[in-house]
User: Which sequence fits this backbone?
């Protein structure tokens, strides 16, 4: 069982993380120093070094913390296929889709800086893996038999994961023009039903 973090420690780490994100947004990672971070966070350098070795350690640990929080919010993911049968016309999102967008919205500035504007590869790769696992568990629930899929399972997983990630990036780059609930509903709908009211490829 993991030890619960002291609230004071949690607040200090949050201040340092917020300062890092703000400064990266303003100047870029390479142009900021530990002194810049501590001044922005109104903390001293000694306090910084109680928690992190250097600014790179802060970057990595903050990435790990945010991604860990995201995993915790969406897992366990889908439990039963019938959960989707209870969503008529998919006008209400499954709670797992909601949790995905709500968690990203909760830390939107960090996601935007790390994922879009500055594109931190470590963070992008971590988020990609989480989404691949998320999609994989959903497809496995809906259809566990590979013989009943129209394409290889891994291809389907990668296709949807790439689409999910691109939608998230678009949402952040445009300053979240839609609510998490709207995004979750649309993503679930297009995943399950496609973008068309009437399938234009289906012969009448």
Assistant:
């Amino acid at each position: 069982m993991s030890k619960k973090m002291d609230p004071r420690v949690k607040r200090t780490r949050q201040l340092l993380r917020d300062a890092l994100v703000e400064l990266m947004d303003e100047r870029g990672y390479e142009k900021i120093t530990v002194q810049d971070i501590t001044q922005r966070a109104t903390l001293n350098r000694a306090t910084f070094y109680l928690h992190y070795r250097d600014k790179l350690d802060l970057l990595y640990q903050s990435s790990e913390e945010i991604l860990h929080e995201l995993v915790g919010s969406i897992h366990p993911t889908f439990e039963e296929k019938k959960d989707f049968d209870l969503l008529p016309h998919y006008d209400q999102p499954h709670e797992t889709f909601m949790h995905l967008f709500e968690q990203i919205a909760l830390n939107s500035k960090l996601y935007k800086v790390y994922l879009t504007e500055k594109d931190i590869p470590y963070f992008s790769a971590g988020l990609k893996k989480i989404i691949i696992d998320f999609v994989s568990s959903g497809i496995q629930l809906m259809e566990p038999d590979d013989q009943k899929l129209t394409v290889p399972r891994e291809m389907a997983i990668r296709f949807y994961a790439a689409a999910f990630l691109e939608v998230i990036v678009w949402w952040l780059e445009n300053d979240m023009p839609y609510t998490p609930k709207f995004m979750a509903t649309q993503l679930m709908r297009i995943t399950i039903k496609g973008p068309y009211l009437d399938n234009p490829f289906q012969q009448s």
